[in-house]
Design goal:
- The chain is built from 11 helices and 8 strands.
- It is of the alpha/beta class and about 250 residues long.
- The protein has one domain: TIM Barrel.
- An 8-stranded parallel beta barrel has the order 1-2-3-4-5-6-7-8, surrounded by 7 helices.
Length: about 250
């Protein structure tokens, strides 16, 4: 069984297209939780293009009330501004169960690569230690590279999140898909062998998720764009249920 954490960024993005509170982020996140999701993921960016700091606080209250995991993604080196408290300050205040450190710049459209820990490890290690002291599990967004994964363990990470964009991009090319699955499977097995938990995320959907989970040992997937898009057609509760069936290997 693999846990499903639903990324609700796109709900906030739609709300932000106009003034007001529709769609209501907390109300829809509660539907996601009631449908059986194992957690909620947010990626508050410094330009607050979707999730805002007050949203994260509201969702922290919601997940605590429902005894569910909140996963806050972001670059730990993001600095405070007049509209953004800084990533490390945000997790200090809200203390999620998990934070996922992602090597994004402030204006990046979406996450598109894992950490190069041979360049970033000293400062990143301090951020990991700081989060761990607060009781927060730290996952690092990583490519399926064993040397990088071993470094993640060395600097104190609790988990890695495998960046699955390349797998999704090549899914319909059989040879590339098989090669990618082999690389991700090897990376996951190696991570597990050195006592790292394994998460996965980026462009996973109802078409490609089952094969990935059948081949790669994963503790948790974080899915947002595809799940929220599917829900426009099938409804939010029904869509969450479909993804949970895949995660539970029943579909």
């Amino acid at each position: 069984m693999t846990n499903l954490s639903v990324n609700v960024n796109k709900i906030a993005w739609l709300r932000n297209a106009r003034e007001g509170s529709r769609p209501n982020l907390v109300e829809l996140s509660k539907i996601i939780i009631d449908a059986g999701a194992n957690g909620i993921t947010v990626h508050p960016r410094p330009d607050i293009r979707h999730i805002r700091p007050n949203d994260v606080s509201d969702l922290r209250t919601l997940t605590k009330t429902n005894a569910l995991e909140l996963n806050i993604e972001g670059n730990p080196f993001s600095k405070p501004s007049s509209i953004y408290p800084g990533f490390m300050q945000l997790i200090k205040e809200l203390r999620p169960e998990q934070c996922t450190f992602v090597p994004d710049n402030d204006h990046q459209l979406t996450s598109d690569h894992g950490w190069n820990l041979f360049n970033e490890n000293n400062n990143l290690k301090e951020c990991i230690n700081e989060a761990n002291k607060l009781g927060i599990r730290v996952s690092l967004f990583m490519d399926p590279d064993k040397s990088q994964i071993e470094k993640a363990k060395d600097i104190g990470a609790d988990r890695i999140e495998l960046y699955t964009g390349p797998y999704a991009d090549t899914f319909f090319d059989k040879n590339k898909r098989i090669n990618n699955l082999s690389a991700y499977s090897d990376a996951s097995l190696f991570a597990k062998s050195i006592d790292l938990g394994v998460n996965a995320g980026h462009d996973l959907d109802q078409i490609n998720l089952k094969e990935f989970l059948l081949n790669v040992e994963v503790d948790e997937v974080s899915i947002g764009q595809a799940l929220i898009s599917d829900s426009l057609r099938d409804g939010l509760e029904a869509t969450v249920n479909k993804y949970l069936l895949i995660c539970n290997d029943k579909l």
